[in-house]
Write a structure and sequence with these properties.
- The complex is a heterodimer of chains A (158) and B (168).
- In chain A, helix 1 crosses helix 3 (37-56).
- The longest helix of chain A has 36 residues, at 83-118.
- Residues 69-82 and 122-130 of chain A have low confidence and may be disordered.
- In chain A, a hairpin with a 2-residue loop joins strand 1 and strand 2.
- Chain A has a domain at 3-62.
- Chain A has helices spanning 3-14, 20-32, 37-56, 74-80, 83-118; strands at residues 137-141, 144-148.
- Chain A is mainly alpha-helical and 158 residues long.
- Chain B has 168 residues and is mainly alpha-helical.
- Helix content of chain B is 70%, strand content 0%.
- Chain B has eight helices and no strands.
- In chain B, helix 5 crosses helix 8 (142-163).
- Residues 88-95 of chain B have low confidence and may be disordered.
- Classes of the chains: A mainly alpha (158), B mainly alpha (168).
- Chains A and B meet through helix 1, helix 3 and helix 4 of A and helix 1, helix 3, helix 4, helix 5 and helix 6 of B.
Chain lengths: 158, 168
Amino acid sequence: MNPKSLEALIVDRSFGELSPEATELLDAYLDANPQMQELVSGIEEALSVTEMAVSSRPELFREDVFDRTDDVDFGSKLIAFPGATWLKAAAAFALLAVAGAGGYFAGNRSAVSELSSSFGPAPTSLLSSSTPGPWAQYRIASGGIETSIPTPSTRQEP
Amino acid sequence: MIAIKQPPNLEQLFRETSADLARYFSRRHGGRESADDLVQETFLKMAQSIESGKRPEHLRAYLFGIARHVSQAAWRQKSKDSVLEDSVPIQSIAAGDSSDPRVDAACEMIDLLPALQREILDLRFNQNLSYAEMAEALDIPVGTVRSRLHNAISLIRNRLAEDNPDTL
């Protein structure tokens, strides 16, 4: 068991914050690991000394030491932040990312189309093979590569 | 079945908690002078809150939450009015003068803790509030209460171990 978790459980048990089932499990674990007894007694002593310190020194807890304006508790604010809001923010980012990526690729594709229309026919790999072109077309037939040169009747003027 | 929460019995609550609240205020303000007034103000605010329909889950925790705000407001007002002649400077007290060096070491460590952790220690050891009650009184998640309390205890334990490595 992680020593920090064990320490936390021992403190919880001392404060009576552990369920009976969890207390039983913890006790069984500590019985099986007698070397942990040192840790247990250390924590119990720390708790007892802290209790004495808190009750004997009220001045440590006076209002003027609680300058709360400079004690911004970022950790708790993050934890307290509603989960639904995080989800909404994540969904909005995802939508933005998808929209951005879509726009980027759409822009690239239209750039290719524009290029092809400006500089003549594009390479066959970029154009749909179903579109009849004025150039020699190649197709793979069962017997090998066939070459067909369009006849004047089939040639389409650009 | 719909359970309708009845308004709490304020008289009984006052009987049960007014002494604790007075102690809370006197610790916060360094004397009993204004503690009784602040207790009255806290219960007045509690009554107003209940009258407006609020039904808190943990009455005692809710009361301490109000007390915390009342205490802050009173201190600010006091600071404005500069009526601080009866207050004792903190620095002169934080220095160790206990007969037990372990208590002195713990006090030195507590003195270094942030305000929130000190409040948690105070509510736990002085008012015996549970994690859930402290969370409600301080308006923070229970997990934060637990982690801050564990952290404080761990720091104090390490400090004690440094001072006396054989015992801890």
